[in-house]
Design goal:
- This protein is α+β, with helices and mostly antiparallel strands.
- It folds into 2 domains: 77 residues, no CATH class; 58 residues, SH3 type barrels, CATH 2.30.30.
- The chain has a 4-stranded antiparallel β-sheet. A two-stranded antiparallel ribbon has the order 2-3.
- Helix 3 crosses helix 4.
- The mean pLDDT is 75.
């Protein structure tokens, strides 16, 4: 599945750091701002658009952080506008992640074949799956989402 393990590792890093807020704080403190779309989409998936944007704006006040927060808020708004797709065939996508018939999801970002998505009604979000597999089991089309 290409670099799917890298995305799964990012989710695990957030869990190890105590959650996405703590991971973002560490990354911002260390001066890492690359990947703001992924970070913003993670905030969207875990906290919702308003909470994610508010967190970034209230937490970081430096010029660099303000630019980061603005980019993140823009990414959250774009992710919120993405369509919902429906799973039509159940499949285990990765260890402990199964998409069931009728599940609705929003594809947030894409890096090659790897799709970060939020599944409605799930506590464990976001998840990273193969776009090729997602096309086989749902009405999602890889071309619907620009490559990062």
């Amino acid at each position: 599945m290409g670099n799917l393990d890298d995305y799964t590792g990012l989710s695990e890093m957030a869990k190890d750091a105590g959650g996405p807020a703590e991971l973002i704080e560490k990354l911002t403190r260390d001066g890492v701002t690359k990947g703001s779309v992924v970070t913003a989409a993670t905030l969207l998936a875990l906290y919702g658009a308003q909470k994610g944007a508010s967190f970034l704006f209230e937490r970081y006040t430096s010029k660099k952080a303000e630019e980061f927060a603005a980019a993140a808020a823009d990414a959250i708004a774009k992710a919120n506008a993405r369509p919902l797709y429906t799973v039509n065939t159940p499949r285990e996508m990765q260890r402990d992640v199964t998409l069931m018939t009728g599940d609705k999801f929003r594809a947030l970002t894409r890096d090659g074949d790897v799709i970060m998505l939020e599944v409605d009604g799930r506590d464990y979000n976001p998840i990273f799956v193969s776009g090729a597999q997602l096309q086989q089991i749902s009405d999602f089309k890889l071309d619907d989402l620009d490559d990062a």
